[in-house]
Hints:
138 residues; alpha+beta; three-stranded antiparallel β-sheet
Amino acid sequence: MKHKxxxxxxxxxxxxxxxxxxxxxxxxxxxxxxxTTEVKAKEMRRVVERMITRxxxxxxxxxxxxxxSIQDKAVLAKLFTDIAPRFATRPGGYTRILKLGARYGDAxxxxxxxLVERKERAPRKKKKEEAKQEAxxx
Length: 138
């Protein structure tokens, strides 16, 4: 019986699971949107929302606690200076999960895990278009 199991093991041992959480949290804060399986996304939502809630108050203790999980200093700075202030007035629910459908190889349900208030990037131009515009200008 598995009564009161607090989390999914994701088919990994403890150290592998914690490494997965760290890597995915870093990627989510860096890109503000990641594509993953539904089960991993639901587990990551718990981890990431706790980090954002802690980052809303910028203190040395909070930075050290979150720095345990996020090794990249640039991403850590982005979390405290850019992401957390966006959610300063929101009482929770910082992420959303958008379903994409089944993965071709194993029919695993794929989703997009993203921050609710994320900055939209300017659309990238393709290399061919850039070359054409440079040729016209020259």
